[in-house]
Write a structure and sequence with these properties.
seven-stranded mixed β-sheet; D-Maltodextrin-Binding Protein, domain 2; single chain; alpha/beta; five-stranded mixed β-sheet
Length: 337
């Protein structure tokens, strides 16, 4: 399997310019968690004699409610350690998020690995952490669907989370490996998010949905009861492509002292606190132990990384760390092939 960087474009797709500094504020990282409507607001000014809020930009891979729930533990810990507010912010969609990333609108960034590579090549952000586990795409259909084989997807309508999503890239590869041209032999419907893609299946608007393993695990038990995963062919399973999940990055022009405090805070939170270890594992989402390491885009492929470092431990909610790897600070990226 090629390194994950092999499927990363070297240049950022261009989109119409959007007004600088506008983004969707979701919640603050202090003890009073609150949600704001999904509207576009300028960066919040700092109160007198206080540092400005630190803004953590998160890829809008799930809805606002999901982002609020998912990242509150991290922002609360960062806010406490940095003695300043930490806000989770996002964008209305993937193209908007790429624009804001290119404009360095976020202080910290949690983004997909192919978008992270683009940001690093542009020199706007520097990688800090990545999990050493991987994920892959899955195809879901309604439980009562007559589709029982991947080959039956030919000629069908398939919902995807977003045309720019790495999950969609994996899904297109999967279809091609099963002899289905995603541009000619199927109709891909952009559902904007994993959740919408699943709901389109349940409503009968599409025949199936291509989502990520994480998108499936985010789903409620009621939703899972009404859908089933369509297993791909055995030849495909032997060398199924996998991708690195979200990458944690920092804006390059932030002060070095602030960067060091952020690294210490996240490292301590993820590796040395019960809340942080539970947040990293989050059985509802991953059901496996994950590592956070300052080691982004090495020459290892995601598949070999998973085989060596990921350990399944559903009964022990703790992050397993390997000191020699956890302290590694190489940020060189593999050359895309």
């Amino acid at each position: 399997m090629p390194a994950w960087g092999a499927m990363v474009p070297h240049t950022r797709p261009r989109f119409p310019r959007l007004k600088d500094g506008w983004r969707c504020h979701l919640f603050s990282g202090d003890s009073t968690c609150f949600s704001l409507p999904c509207c576009w607001r300028p960066r919040l000014p700092a109160p007198p004699n206080q540092p400005p809020p630190l803004e953590l930009g998160v890829l809008p891979y799930i809805g606002i409610e999901g982002l609020i729930e998912a990242y509150q533990p991290l922002t609360e810990q960062l806010g406490k350690d940095l003695s300043r507010p930490v806000l989770v912010v996002s964008a209305r969609d993937y193209p908007h998020f790429l624009e804001l990333t290119a404009d360095r609108s976020y202080d910290l960034l949690i983004t997909a690995s192919h978008f992270a590579r683009m940001a690093q090549l542009e020199g706007t952000y520097e990688p800090l952490f990545r999990p050493l586990t991987t994920y892959h795409e899955v195809v879901v259909v309604r439980k009562d669907s007559p589709i029982h084989d991947t080959a039956q997807l030919r000629g069908k309508r398939l919902a995807i989370p977003n045309r720019l999503a790495q999950t969609t890239i994996l899904g297109r590869q999967m279809l091609k490996r099963h002899g289905i041209d995603p541009d000619r032999d199927a109709t891909l419907i952009d559902a904007i998010s994993h959740k919408n893609a699943i709901y389109n299946v349940l409503k009968g608007d599409v025949d199936a949905a291509i989502i990520s393993t994480g998108g499936y695990r985010h789903s409620s038990d009621d939703v899972k009861a009404d859908i089933r995963i369509l297993e791909p062919g055995k030849p495909y399973l032997k060398d199924r492509p996998e991708a690195i999940p979200l990458i944690y990055m920092i804006r390059r022009d932030l002060p070095q002292t602030l960067r060091e405090r952020i690294v210490r805070s996240i490292t301590h939170f993820a590796n040395e606190t019960d809340v942080g270890r539970d947040w990293i594992i989050n059985k509802r989402r991953y059901q496996e132990c994950r590592y956070l390491v300052k080691d982004f885009g090495t020459s290892q492929s995601p598949k070999s990384t998973r085989q060596r470092d990921s350990r399944y431990c559903p009964d022990r909610p703790a992050l397993i760390t390997t000191p020699s790897r956890t302290l590694q600070q190489s940020c060189s990226c593999a050359t895309p092939s």
